[in-house]
Amino acid sequence: MAATQTTGGIASPRSPYARRTTTRGNYELYSWVFMRASGVLLLVLIFGHLFVNLMVGEGVKAIDFAFVGGKWSSPFWQVWDLLMLWLAMFHGTNGVRTIINDYAQRDATRGILKALLYLAFTVVVVLGTLVIFTFDPCPANAPADLLPSICSAS
Fold first, then answer.
1. CB neighbours of 97 closer than 8 A, spacing ≥ 6?
2. Per CATH, is 26-136 categorized as 3.40.50.2000?
3. In 1-152, where does DSSP find H-type helix?
4. What value does the mean pLDDT of the chain take?
5. SS3 of 3, please?
């Protein structure tokens, strides 16, 4: 009697289990662990962000262009917001990738959806990073009537 008996290409239910070999390695395991770790770190980053923006100082009434300009003039807050952006985008993209893998039945559909997802991820991360690091509330040679009150008139 053979180790695995097949009937029409389907293995017999009583045949020994043969582990399938995959070329993906432990990618899905690492993805699962990343989701848990990034979720915890995102909680810290988001609640820290909310606490500073809503509880410290005058609260939500103080949030305006000058508040953001003053906050992003500090490298600490630039890195904080950058980490929050990148982690949120990686976390969300990984979650949507998992949903696409679970529910898209055809390979072509799955490929198109993932390509659109990765394109959206790239655009948001690149533009968000550029905004955080190139934001200047007081651009040189700007008309004085267009500058916010935090800029010194020179």
1. 114, 117
2. no
3. 27-50, 65-71, 75-103, 107-134
4. 85
5. coil
